[in-house]
Amino acid sequence: MRAFILIASISAVLFQSCAQQAEPQQPKIQKEQPKVKVEFTLTDFLADNSDLENEVERIFKSLDDTSIVAQLIMPAVGRLGQTDATIKQHIKDRIIGGVLMLNGTKDEFTRWIAKYEQLNDSLGNLPFLYSADAEPSLVNRKIIGSIPVKKANEMQTIDEVRACADTISKELNAIGINYNFSPVVDMSPNKTVGFRSFGAVPSNIIPWSNAFIQQTQKQNIIATAKHFPGHGLVSGDTHKALQVIDGELKEIGNYPELIKNGVLSIMIAHIAVKNNPKYDTKGLPASTSSTIVTDLLRKEYGFKGLIVTDAMNMGGVASIPNCEAKAIEAGVDIVLMPIDAKKAHSSILKKYKEDAAYRKKVDEAAKRVIRMKIALGLLKAKN
User: Fold this and answer.
1) Which residues lie below 8 Å from residue 108, measured CB to CB, with a gap of 6+?
2) What is the pLDDT of residues 73-100, one digit of tens each?
3) Predicted local distance difference test score (pLDDT) of residue 35
4) Spatial CB neighbours of 77, under 8 Å, sequence gap ≥ 6
């Protein structure tokens, strides 16, 4: 009996050994070390971040002169803007870096943005900044089919402001818009802009604007304080003609706290300043004055975000020859709604190639735009 058990045990061991030899050996998989992903958010834009700066430089160096200048130009599409066909041609010509969705339906804008990005991708262009005048007082007129919200001057509490910013931001994200030209931080007296700000109670302008900005930027959308240095205390309409601030800049006090709290964009108005020894614009609109854009906003107030002009087809600036090139020379990053985007690109590019000081300004502006595109997640960092 013991002999039988011993033989059976030996047989089992031999069988198991043969079976193991018959099975093919699985190759050992060498696991790759996981790559560290470098990702950025909007909060990185204003921060000191060497990884982000290196990524900006990498992308910038991949662009030719035409594409560098293109980053600074943002025409509009929709009613009172350019046609869809014109924008597509601009994309093919590589002369624009973003589009303002001016007047149209929510569905229309959604389709256009998807189509433009497909075209950009096929041509190897950088993705676009897509903007809108999605202020509480204008959004339902500018984007037909968007969820109704109260006008800015009708809101009663700061909680209403935050809820409104959330509603608008969710709509913009659904469409593909990543840049909101809002809030208006002007005082209320001017009829063109007054009903669009939180200035019904003057003491609300700064805290309520800040609440709108913070809530917007939490939703991965650039917020914009406008219209610097102040449109609320002039009597006229810059859409029709150049308006003038006579003497003291009474509204610039609305901006320092918003800048300190991280607003990412400021829009410059087409308003001249006279009888002010420090900030006189010598008859030019602020949008083309280095005194306002560079000396006051950049240097004195320390603003590091994107500076965008008000629409360049407005009466307050359109009559100035080469106004887009002059706005860039003043220190602006993005010229909005040029009358002729192709002509604007050509005039900026010409000076870019001829003037070393001007070239430096263009490069700095383009790098800020690229930095914002990375921070928004439009451009993925190279691992």
Assistant:
1) 78
2) 999 999 999 999 999 999 999 999 999 9
3) 44
4) 83, 84, 86, 87, 99, 100, 101, 102, 104, 112
Q: Which of 239, 295, 340, 363 is catalytic?
A: 239
**Residues 6+ away with beta carbon under 8 Å from 145:** 105, 106, 107
310 catalytically annotated: yes
What's the token pair of residue 94? 């590589």
At residue 199, the pLDDT reads 84
340 in catalytic set:
no
Q: Is 230 left (phi over 0), alpha (psi -120 to 50) or beta?
A: left
Entry pTM: 0.89
Which stretches of the chain score pLDDT less than 50? 1-36
Q: What are the tokens at 131?
A: 């903007």
The rounded distance, in Å, linking the Cα atoms of 41 and 217 is 10
Calculate the alpha carbon distances from 269 to 234, 312, 338 in Å: 11, 10, 14
| Cα 153 off chain centre by | 25
Q: Are 196 and 232 in contact (CB under 8 A)?
A: no
Among 49, 368, 115, 78, which Cα is nearest to 222's?
368
In this structure, CATH architecture of domain 38-375 = Alpha-Beta Barrel (3.20)
167 forms beta bridges with: none
- Active-site option among 133, 310, 333, 345: 310
Q: 333 near 307, Cβ under 8 Å?
A: yes
The ranges assigned to domains in the chain are: 38-375
